[in-house]
Amino acid sequence: MQYGSRVLLVSGARWLASSGLTEEISKLLSGLELQVVACPEGEPSTESLAVCLDGARDFSPSMILAIGGGSVLDTAKALSALLRHGGPVSKFLEGMPGSVPVPGPGVPWIAVPTTAGTGAEVTKNAVIRATELGVKRSMRSAYLLASVVIVDPELTRTLPPRVTGISGLDALTQLVEAYVTPKSNLFVQSLIEGAFGPMISALERLSEEPQNLDLRSAASYGALVSGIALANAGLGAAHGFAAALGGLFGVPHGLACAVSLPHVLQGNAAVIGVSVARLTASIRNERGVAADAVRWLADRVTEILRRFGLPADLREYHIPAERITEIAEKSSGSSMSGNPRQLSIAEREKILTRIVWGGTENPRP
Q1: DSSP class per residue in 67-126
Q2: Contact 325, 346 (CB under 8 A)
């Protein structure tokens, strides 16, 4: 086999047990030495990676097969480097004291996404929560790119509605932010224009037609394009806020992005109107919608949240009012730098108030 015979299978424990594919995977890998590492639930953190590394180090795999959502794929990316170059993970996290670049190729890995979300299968960074600091940081290197990517929409058909909605809206947010950022370009925008309409249409219908393979395929393609787009153009404030909300309060990344997007769109409305009108033109024309494009898109995102039974704000996380300034400050970073206009801390605080409490003027502490 091209990558050797010692295969580390990285997946989520719950998905692997419920997928019904364990036996089939074992048959496909027969003749190879196989070790399974089940990722702890939740997004990857310095702690969860230490656990996974302990379970994989003695096996010395020649390749990694990652089957799962964005968290699993990011875990596999990080393990690729850590198994080859040693840890701890903080050694390679951007912005951490004394951190250094990944020095060379890691263990080759194959990406098999089971969600249509982050596009992590085609990006070169693994986002890790440094729990002790309350921040998320990236391990970023071209050496972390997957050797092979296999996107099979069939694997997404059994996703629960909540996961379908959250992951899909994460991908939609990536498509929109990568399109309107000043860092974008014609190559990225042309890809996004081809994926955006099918993606938003799929999200509008998947809550009622979860087994529809055409819709699942459109969502998987949209997620794949969103990963390529963000890798080549960057993102914006919705992802900046999501990084801070996830790092400080453990808000799931996709949910934070989805809830943030309508408010970020409105906050950027003065400078993104032409771009959003161009991006949404075909689908709005098809539906006979002539309304303000930014408002229309923000309303569609809010409606998709409702269809999947997802909250339109984050009040369920009971984020204290006195922490809003801290969130605003910690939202600075590469994503925020790609926002179509610079947002002052005061402007971020106003947007965050709407994200966290739905615009409530006197939120409960």
Answers
A1: EESHHHHHHHHHHHHHHHH---GGGGSTTSTT-----S--S-EEEEESSSSS-GGG-SEE
A2: no
Neighbours of 214 (CB within 10 A): 12
Looking at the fold, whether 134 and 179 belong to one and the same domain comes out as no
Spatial distance between the Cα atoms of 365 and 363, rounded to a whole number of angstroms: 6
Which positions ≥6 away from 349 have C-beta within 8 Å?
A: 324, 325, 328
Q: Which residue among 151, 176, 193 closes a domain? A: 151
Please write the tens of the pLDDT for every residue from 156-212.
998 999 999 999 999 999 999 999 999 999 999 999 999 999 999 999 999 999 999
Print the domain residue range for 66.
6-151
Backbone angles phi, psi at 251, to 5 degrees: -65, 130
Answer whether 0.90 is exceeded by the pTM. Answer: yes
For 48-69, write each residue's pLDDT tens digit. Answer: 999 899 889 889 999 999 999 9
Element (H, E) at 217: helix 213-233
CATH classification of the domain holding 132: 3.40.50.1970
Residue 364 lies in a domain: no
Residues 147 and 237 grouped into a single domain: no
Residues 244 and 320 in one domain: yes
Tokens 């990080």: give the residue: 78
Provide the number of structural domains found in the chain: 2
